[in-house]
Specification:
312 residues
């Protein structure tokens, strides 16, 4: 990592987040309960589930590589002041490229249902499935990899810092937009199954719904404006890291809110496809730790928040 005067809380936060990233990914990779789940299904559905599972698992292997490299690099950085610019760029390229392949592995999950099922369903059911599941999956498995591949290209030695900053901001904005799109689709599925009483009778569900549909969309809009404002930034010194820290913190708090809602308020009548997704199939749940990075940035001194102590 570049030499920096970041405070100890930020270093601890960074180490904690990459440790969560690594451990969560390791757990997901070692979970093999999905193996053979397609064997008792009808032939067409069997093929769809098989292809989706294999693609997702191949992608998960690459995310594990990304998490392992990130954790090792930050662990070294935690004990040293700098890894050097060249080494830092190489590490980031490996991590981001592997993360991009992980998302690309989800592409079959968006394509297979469209190819094999939607034309055979009633038009309304097919339309709802497209907007609540298929399209979000296609967007996440294409938009994120494209943004990350571009960022990797801009991180090559000799490339300008301006381009790397630009595509870092774009990638962050795309992530937030994808989280909004995917999770809004899951909420739509839950409401279709449970009815609007699922929101009106349970205030905690209504809060989660509003924070997802409107909160994440607002956060994506703020991130897009932040990206536009600093589009031509020549160095990290010019970035307002306090605002960046706020964006990171609020995204992490959204994950934390939804997780703690079930921990403290969860009961049988609340269970739905929303909680099944968020708690059981959400491979980005480790992001609930990222406020440990965002908060130190938010409350850093003005000089630090403007990037005066960072050199890349």
């Amino acid at each position: 990592m570049p030499e920096t005067t970041f405070s100890t809380p930020l270093k601890i936060g960074l180490l904690t987040v990459v440790a969560a990233y690594f451990l969560f990914t390791l757990h997901a990779l070692l979970t093999t309960s999905w193996v053979g789940e397609w064997e008792s299904l009808p032939p067409t559905l069997r093929l769809v589930i098989y292809v989706e599972d294999i693609g997702a698992t191949a992608g998960m292997i690459f995310r594990f590589i990304a998490s392992l490299v990130a954790f090792a690099a930050v662990a070294v950085y935690f004990t040293k002041r700098s890894l050097g610019e060249h080494t830092t760029r190489r590490i980031l390229m490996i991590v981001l490229f592997s993360e991009a392949i992980y998302w690309l592995g989800l592409l079959p999950s968006g394509l297979m249902p469209i190819i094999y099922f939607r034309a055979r369903q009633p038009p309304l059911d097919a339309l709802l499935a497209l907007f609540s599941s298929d399209i979000p999956c296609l967007v996440e498995s294409t938009a994120i990899p494209v943004a990350l591949f571009m960022l990797v290209a801009k991180l090559r030695p000799g490339k300008s810092v301006r381009e790397a900053i630009r595509w870092s901001l774009v990638s962050g904005t795309v992530y937030i937009f994808v989280f909004w799109l995917v999770n809004t689709g899951i909420w739509a599925s839950a409401i279709m199954q449970k009815g609007f009483d699922y929101l009106t009778v349970y205030p905690e569900n209504l809060a989660g719904f509003v924070l997802t549909v409107f909160g994440l969309l607002t956060l994506a809009g703020v991130a897009a404006r932040f990206t536009k404002k600093y589009w031509g930034t020549e160095s990290l010194r010019s970035l307002n890291l306090r605002v960046a820290g706020a964006l990171i913190t609020f995204l992490g708090l959204w994950f934390l809110w939804n997780y703690l809602t079930w921990v403290f308020l969860g009961r049988n009548e609340l269970w739905s496809v929303w909680y099944a997704w968020f708690l059981g199939h959400n491979l980005d749940l480790w992001l609930l730790t990222i406020p440990l990075i965002g908060l130190p940035l938010m409350f850093s001194k003005k000089d630090d928040a403007s990037g005066d102590s960072i050199n890349l």
